Amino acid sequence: MDFPKKLQQKLEGRKAVNALRKLGSQNNLIDFSSNDYLGFSKNETIFKATHDFLIGHRISQNGATGSRLLSGNHPLYSVVESVLCNFHKSEAALIFNSGYDANVGFFSCVPQKDDIILYDEYIHASIRDGITMSLAKSYKFKHNDIEALENMMLRHSKPVSESHQNIYIVTESVFSMDGDSPDLIRLSEICKKNNAYLIVDEAHAIGSLGKHGVGLIQDLKLESQVFARLITFGKALGCHGAAILGSDNLKQYLINFSRSFIYTTALPPHSLATINAAYNELISTQNGVLLKRNIIHFKSEITKNNLQHLFIISNSSIQCCIISGNERVKSIAKKLREFHFDVKPILSPTVPKGQERLRFCLHSYNSTKEISDVLQQLATFATTMTC
Q1: Is residue 283 within 8 Å of residue 45, measured between CB atoms?
Q2: Which of 78, 81, 253, 347 is least surrounded by Cβ atoms within 10 Å, i.e. has the fewest?
């Protein structure tokens, strides 16, 4: 059969603007691209601890056998969810198969008809997809603009109050494509003042920010001010899965109404044992200290190489250099690759046109020399860049 013409035209459109995505392969380049911030994905201690835990508890099961509501709710779920509650100071935790599943599952079922969702314009695609599945009304606000958000809340608060509906405010503690953070303290105060429900995606903060990697919400002692926190295990924790942290009532609601939770095969015991081992490693190692050192060094090297005007201000593991134009940013990434640095170009339409960028992901295992060298090489190409 011929491939549908409309689909072929969309592929050709991507090719025309040099934005066609392709699957790459793993390489031996110096890693400035992965989300493995603490190096846990290759951590031998975690690997061995997972194996020993399974053997010690006589668990030799490969698959989950079904959804958690059928046959897949292995006893390890309650163990790991208890660990999450204690570590993250949450009343309840519910594990999902991925961050995407968690966000789609949450936003498609929690906000109800005539509720209002106000979300940061740079929010993750998984949240946007969940919102589109919701019956609630949704509006985006300018990135990290608290005043713009407050004005929107004031416009909607009266009719929402009169109709007994709810306002949900959605943001991230660290934005994946900018690496920056909102003013979470002020945001929580505004939500409290307007009786709005605050939801924070902490995917890129867990493991990399706060004492022992607790994330920004806990670091700022805002746990009681947040209706729901999304945490993921596939980034700094180096394994797989995600969880939503919140109240017992929220957990029971999601178990009953979140379709991405109800209608999917559960994670296997091995995945749960790995999450458990990763949290033990998070508490006992100094990887977080090394990561913070590298973030500070990277920022100092930005200044040393006079690259401040190209970089988005960020205190996280994600540091982004704006180089407008898909062709230009791909060319710079290719040049860095020739010097054995794996730095990914982020193209439009993933980011707005004109905001294409090199996305540097920093890790505890990057050496200070590697950081200095990659930015020195970047500086040699600076004259060809325009914002």
Answers
A1: no
A2: 78
d(CA 189, CA 174): 19
pLDDT at 159: 64
Q: How many other β-carbons are positioned within 10 Å of the β-carbon of residue 383? A: 7
Distances (CA, A) of 60 to 20, 55, 280: 42, 7, 22
Q: Is residue 221 part of a domain?
A: yes
Q: Give me the residue label for tokens 């500070």.
A: 296
In a domain, 166, yes or no: yes
Does 329 lie in the same domain as 237? no
Per the structure, the count of domains in the chain is 2
Q: Please, what is the Cα angle at 295 between 245 and 241, to 5 degrees?
A: 30
Burial zone of 145 (CB within 10 Å; 0-12 exposed, 13-18 middle, 19+ buried): middle
Is there a single domain that holds both residue 377 and residue 329? yes
Residues 209 and 334 reside in one and the same domain:
no
What is the mean pLDDT of each successive set of 10 residues along the chain, which is 387 residues long? 93 90 86 97 97 96 96 96 98 98 98 95 96 95 96 81 82 95 97 94 96 95 97 97 98 98 97 98 90 97 95 96 93 95 93 94 97 96 61
Helix axes 76-88, 269-284, angle to 10 degrees: 30
Is the pTM above the cut of 0.90?
Answer: yes
Residues 6+ apart with CB under 8 A from 171: 119, 120, 123, 182, 184, 187, 198, 199, 200, 201
